[in-house]
Design brief:
MetI-like fold, MetI-like_sf, single chain, two-stranded antiparallel sheet, flat, mainly alpha
């Protein structure tokens, strides 16, 4: 045997390295890395730690007079406003009305954006026909379209739903287009060699491979929908969280204003939880983070 023969590693941990030739380089014997997850009793407190600190500072500041009630109502006042709206039934009605508008608008915008993004990502002709128009749409702030949409569709539900839909089309298109374009070409060629073509190739290989980008786009679209919802409900509505904001501004009720912010935050948490559940069941092979 020559001097470049790889030395046998001993069972001891200190001699677990492998020598190569006489260069002095030593390779550690690979160890299986198990996926570790935090227990729920530790994860939950960590997730609510920062929000709890913010609420505690807010509560202490209001109780000590450091934060004026005219500027920012304290947690007890906000809780009283919540109870008042719940007892009158307006809390549930307004929240469901806003949720319905957001869901319908997001469903419409996400569907259109996903179809256009996939077509532009798959085919050169699709990119040539679609991409320039979508880039123009992306460059136009959707809030600038509010007066135009009111002139076209009035101030009924159609205006509100379409405004949210237009706000969510561009993010879904951009991430879907990018996700499809980033699919490994070798994977597609391997699937084609097994006879997958047409819709079977698109829905069996390309869409699943682009799913991380698509779900990220869905999360962004749901967040943007809340902004669109705020703008849409400021005009011509008699129910919804945005209508409650208008009433709070008119009567200078800071407790109702803060309550509306809390309701929008809860709505955002619900949307985020929905996407997390969707990611867990549609992509079980993905880890939450790279390093734990």
């Amino acid at each position: 045997m020559t001097s470049s023969t790889v030395a046998k590693s001993s069972p001891s941990a200190s001699e677990d390295a492998v020598g190569i030739g006489g260069s002095g380089l030593r390779l550690e014997t690979p160890r299986h890395r198990k996926q570790r997850s935090r227990p729920f009793w530790l994860t939950l407190p960590l997730r609510v730690l920062v929000p709890a600190i913010i609420v505690a500072v807010w509560w202490i500041g209001s109780a000590t007079g450091w934060i004026s009630e005219e500027i920012l109502a304290g947690p007890p006042a906000v809780w009283d406003a919540l109870v008042e709206l719940y007892e009158t039934g307006q809390l549930i009605d307004f929240t469901l009305a806003s949720l319905q508008r957001a869901v319908i608008g997001v469903a419409l915008g996400v569907s259109v954006g996903l179809i256009l993004g996939v077509l532009a990502g798959l085919y050169t002709l699709g990119e040539e026909l679609i991409d320039a128009t979508m880039q123009i749409n992306r460059a136009i702030p959707f809030l600038a379209l509010v007066p135009l949409f009111i002139a076209w569709f009035g101030i009924d539900e159609t205006f509100k739903v379409l405004l949210i839909a237009v706000a969510t089309v561009s993010p879904m298109y951009a991430y879907s287009y990018l996700g499809v374009r980033n699919v490994d070409r070798k994977m597609i060629e391997a699937a084609q060699s097994f006879g997958l073509t047409g819709p079977r190739l698109i829905f069996g290989v390309i869409i699943p491979a682009a799913l991380p980008g698509i779900l990220m786009a869905l999360r962004i679209c749901l967040s943007i929908s809340i902004t669109g919802l705020i703008a849409a409900e400021q005009v011509g509505t008699r129910e919804g969280i945005g209508y409650l904001v208008s009433l709070a501004q008119e009567y200078n009720r800071t407790d109702y204003m803060v309550l509306c912010v809390v309701l929008y935050a809860i709505l955002g948490l619900v949307f985020d939880a929905f996407v997390r559940i969707l990611e867990r069941y549609s992509m079980p092979w993905r880890q939450g983070v790279s390093i734990r």
